[in-house]
Please model this.
Amino acid sequence: MAKVHVTIQVVLWLLSVAYLSAFLSLFFQVPGLYGPKGVTPIHPYLPLNSHSFLSNWLSRPTLLWLSNTAGIDPSSGMLVLCLVGSVLSFCTLIYPLFRSPLSYFILYLLYLSVHNVGGVFLWFQWDALLLEFGALAVFLAPIEPLFLIPSCPRPWDSLKLWLIRWLAFRLIFSSGVVKLNAGCPTWWGLTALQVHFESQCIPTQLSWYLHQLPVWTLRLSVVFTFFAEIAAPLLFLLPSRSLRLIAFLTQAQLLFGINTGGNYNFFGILSLAALITVLDDDCLSYSKKGRLHRFLTRLDLVVVTPLVLAAYAYYTVQLFNLRLSIRPLEVTSSVNFSQDEWDSWVAWAVPWTVWSGVAWLLYQMAHALLSSLTQPQGVIGKLTSTLATCVYSVLALFLFLNTLPSYTQISPSFRSSLPPSLFSWESTLSDYSLASHYGPFRRMTGVGGRPEVVLEWSNHLEGEWREYNFHYKPGNLSTAPSFLAPHQPRLDWQLWFAALSTYQHTPWVIQLINRLLQNESSVLALLTDTPPQPVYIRASHYLYHFTSEGTDWWSRDNQEEFVPPLSVDHKTVRDFLKEKGLWVEGRLSNTSVDSLIHKIYWTAHNSVSPQVAIWVTCLLALFVAILDHVLYKNSWIVRTLTTSSVLWVGIILCYVITIRK
Model:
């Protein structure tokens, strides 16, 4: 079996980038979103009581219960967790010594703690993906750095890595299947991308150009999306390395298109990290193999791969009725199968993928057990390796089975046949996000225009209404979309979802207006401008469209009133927020520790933007990691002193630059 040591290190490094991006991004938003005067204060989730920490943990797993013990505000505790998570993930980026199960367990615990009190602003699929991936990383990370012992043969590495590959398969395959399961007319009509680039949460400048592409190109791109998300992932479950490599390259193209044509924060990094597990060290580095291996590789390349690709090409042409037209030069396409035929295929495919997963898992377990009996030297070495393999095998089997209830949601008929005990496990462990169901963009919104909520303020009901401007979401018609990944502005994102609904179903919008009426600085920090305290604020519902020419990027039509004009002393606002559980009184902590934590926050906020902070930190970590690799042949003392010196010089330079700014 191919070695996977390099692959594991690449996967862990990319996961650390995702953790760093998530923690730093959230750090800049905590006071405005979760502070005592934020949009959704978190201290109601953590009431003061006389219960033990264990009892509180069992009711809601979060380390933020300790903020009550420390006598600080829970939002200050959340800032501390974000800072600790940022520092630890940075250390795992630059020092392989830190890429241990303990480090990734702490990172998982920190993010779980903020996620479980984060409410609507932390309910995104990539947050669930980060937690599931993070839990598997505790299982994946090599244990040797934790005990400062030399690296040794690890027969169970391929077994552990396969669980991440199974996660990659579920993520991508489910994302494709749900699009057709949902019966969305735009996906079935291959018109989804004609509205997607305009209507997605936060477009980039490239989105505008992609939106202008010919219709036949956008339709063909939908066909490619179905191929990449439904057909290609099936190759993950095959033993052919060349086919898995082709599947990886197909997914890489799709990921590149998604993450350049839209702002999807750290989701692209997580997806790439999961996809890397489709490869092995032979794909990432050169190694010599024996004659049998070379023969099987040639057989795979010359016979198996061409046959599979030919079958894929044939069925893609037939199922999507692809036809080449010379005049004009274009490729026409249309779906050539019915909903019933699709449902029948899914009812067959999902059980097949599950049983293929079972077969792969059993093979990995058997191979790891055999290797543990033959590779180590001496009886003690064999016994230790065999015992470790058995432990990892039991854990791997449990983690695999725990994913089945969430994965099989795409096939209700097969899901109903699963043993009831699996659903009991899922329910018991649901607070720990060890498995989730994935399926973004199952229904395409924004057909006919991109809905937007625009907040406006005035000092007179009949007077001039002026708009609040946000950092990232569309507002001003002449402001170009920006590229901000891997930062995720969570308020901007949720306002996109709010525009698809009403304020009765998104009551936090009224709380946002209430905080702006109070001129709350922590909430204003999430916006671009800070006007004087207004008397009235209202919200209007607009439909935005990309322009096709001119200097403006957007055009818009006013549709209707979203929220009527409200004032700071409006009794209806208070009654509405009380009814929705958002009217929070008391519990304001202002200890010296709180003041210090918030001073650090405001210093960072006033010095640098979140996306710049993330990019500079990641690039500095990459430079230090490369330097450490270059110095690999030197002693660990020389390497540590050199990289630490460079690191501190970089930190000081960044500090000086931000202070001068």
